[in-house]
């Protein structure tokens, strides 16, 4: 009977993959790395979903506010000129400017979300590459994966950072180059 129980325990242990809490001869730092990369991708993806919902609500609110300000402004313009009307028109104009500034600020969120989606895709792709021994030790597979990453980028700043890191520059050097480029193009708009 005891022999039978040991056989079952051994069978269960064989079926369960080794992990860092209970390492055995099957333990693999690659598998542990894949788990952590997958966790990071899941966390980013979850935050993006939550953020999208909030930003969509804010966008709808600002769109409604802008429309209400336009209606109020047109009603005020229809009134006879007086100091109260003129003050209200100034307030409408200032409020409309603030709404416009807020809408522009949301464009940052769109850009950030796009970058984070790229990070998620890269983490998932890296996990898949690491999981496959045939691909893991094949330089052509790494080159193919790197080319896939770069091809997804739509913003020059992403491509520049990618190139800098692959050239062997440190994270700080790549960030400094990006900042220098940004300051050099302070007046231009980066389309994405």
Could you explain how this protein is built, in words?
By secondary structure, the chain is mainly α. Helix 2 (29-78) runs antiparallel to helix 3 (83-131), helix 3 (83-131) packs antiparallel against helix 5 and helix 6 (156-166) packs antiparallel against helix 7. The chain is built from seven helices and no strands. The model has no long low-confidence stretch (mean pLDDT 83). It has helices at residues 2-15, 29-78, 83-131, 133-136, 139-152, 156-166, 171-184.
Q: Count of helices?
A: 7
Task: Give the termini separation.
Answer: 68 Å
Principal-axis shape: elongated
The average pLDDT value, as a whole number, equals 83
Uncertain parts = none
Helix content: over 70%
What is the strand and helix layout of this fold?
Layout: H1 2-15, H2 29-78, H3 83-131, H4 133-136, H5 139-152, H6 156-166, H7 171-184
Features:
elongated
Can you describe this structure in just a few lines?
This protein is mostly helical and 192 residues long.
């Amino acid at each position: 009977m005891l022999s039978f129980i040991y056989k079952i325990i051994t069978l269960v242990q064989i079926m369960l993959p080794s992990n860092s809490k209970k390492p055995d001869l099957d333990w693999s730092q690659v598998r542990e790395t894949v788990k952590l990369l997958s966790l990071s991708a899941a966390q980013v993806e979850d935050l993006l979903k939550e953020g999208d919902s909030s930003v969509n609500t804010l966008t709808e609110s600002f769109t409604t506010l802008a429309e209400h300000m336009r209606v109020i402004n047109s009603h005020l313009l229809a009134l006879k000129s007086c100091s109260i009307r003129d003050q209200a028109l100034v307030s409408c104009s200032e409020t409309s400017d603030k709404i416009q500034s807020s809408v522009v600020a949301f464009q940052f969120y769109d850009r950030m979300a796009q970058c984070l989606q790229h990070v998620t895709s890269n983490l998932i792709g890296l996990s898949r590459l690491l999981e496959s021994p045939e691909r893991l030790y094949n330089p052509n597979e790494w080159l193919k994966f790197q080319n896939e990453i770069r091809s997804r980028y739509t913003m020059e700043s992403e491509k520049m950072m990618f190139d800098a890191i692959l050239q062997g520059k440190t994270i700080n050097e790549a960030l400094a180059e990006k900042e220098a480029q940004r300051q050099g193009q302070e007046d231009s708009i980066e389309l994405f």
